[in-house]
Automatic annotation (TrEMBL):
Keywords: Cytoplasm, Molybdenum cofactor biosynthesis. This is Sulfur carrier protein FdhD. Belongs to the FdhD family. Gene3D superfamilies: 3.10.20.10, Cytidine Deaminase, domain 2. The gene is fdhD. The lineage of its organism: Bacteria, Bacillati, Actinomycetota, Actinomycetes, Kitasatosporales. The keyword Magnesium does not apply. It is found in: Cytoplasm.
Amino acid sequence: MGRVTERRKVIRIRDGAVSSRPDTLVAEEPLEIRLNGRPLAITMRTPGDDFALAAGFLVSEGVLGGQGDVQNIVYCAGATEDGSNTYNVVDVRTSPGVTVPDITLERNVYTTSSCGLCGKASLDAVRTTARWGIADTPPVRVTPELLADLPDRLRAAQRVFDRTGGLHAAALFSEEGALLDVREDVGRHNAVDKLVGRALEGGRLPLSRAILLVSGRASFELAQKAVMAGIPVLAAVSAPSSLAVDLAAETGLTLVGFLRGSSMNVYAGEDRVALHRAVARD
């Protein structure tokens, strides 16, 4: 199985002094996801939690919704001409009776570590395939003070980032601020898929009382993944995209961006944020 980090020689220049030394880099390898033996998608990822990544990916595609939907997930032996197992191909077998939509025609087969679910940017598609309505779940209330504390707690849990400086991270917190799970990956959408897949494996979907925090921007695909997992609050340390805001407003997702220190912007779902004073509206 691939390693999370690898060592490479680097020429280091500091104040005019030149030296040679090994450097620790985050590993990046392709993962092919197959569904019932058929190739579905390829994503560039950091090896580790591959089964959870595949399961979480299929939750966001509307294929899986619970533990019982999965018969098994395996690495595919004989993935190369010589029959060796590269641990870069996984096959997800659904349980008998699980309806598998024809999703191969709706999306690109190749996804990079930055683009996420390219080619599938339909608000209607998410609304119609989401298994759990976020607006219908019991209300979750969070304070700005609780949200402001989360990025530092996420950063403290990023063990591989400390060694490489080159990983995105995503974490799930309870509505009281307890850290539930954290995953790192070269792709921010992969980190979220790993979280969601682990929740599916543990029988914890929908995540209707959880807060999802991501280390980068809040793109459409990350908002989509939150909605499909039933997560009511998505917070990001950077900016959201316009389509992410539109999706949040359409589905009832609370979307917070630019979460830095005590400052943040609430773009949608502000009713879940316990504000201390009246908000002026245009």
